[in-house]
Amino acid sequence: MIDNYQRNINYLRISVTDRCNLRCVYCMPPEGVENTPHREILSLEEIARVVDAASDIGISKIRITGGEPLVRKNIVDLFESISANPQIKDISITTNGVLFADMAEDLKRAGLNRVNFSLDSLNPDIFRDITRRGKFDDVWRGIQKALELELHPVKLNVVAVRGVNDHEFADFARLTRELPLHVRFIELMPIGECNPWAVENFIAAEEILMKLQQGFGPLNTEVKVTGGGPAKYFSLPGAKGTIGFITAISQHFCAACNRLRLTANGQLRPCLYGQQEFDLKTPLREGADRQELAILIAKAIRYKPSQHHMEEGWTDRRVMSQIGG
Ligand code: SAM
Ligand code: SF4
Question: By CB neighbour count within 10 A (0-12 exposed, 13-18 middle, 19+ buried), where does 47 fall?
Answer without folding.
Answer: buried
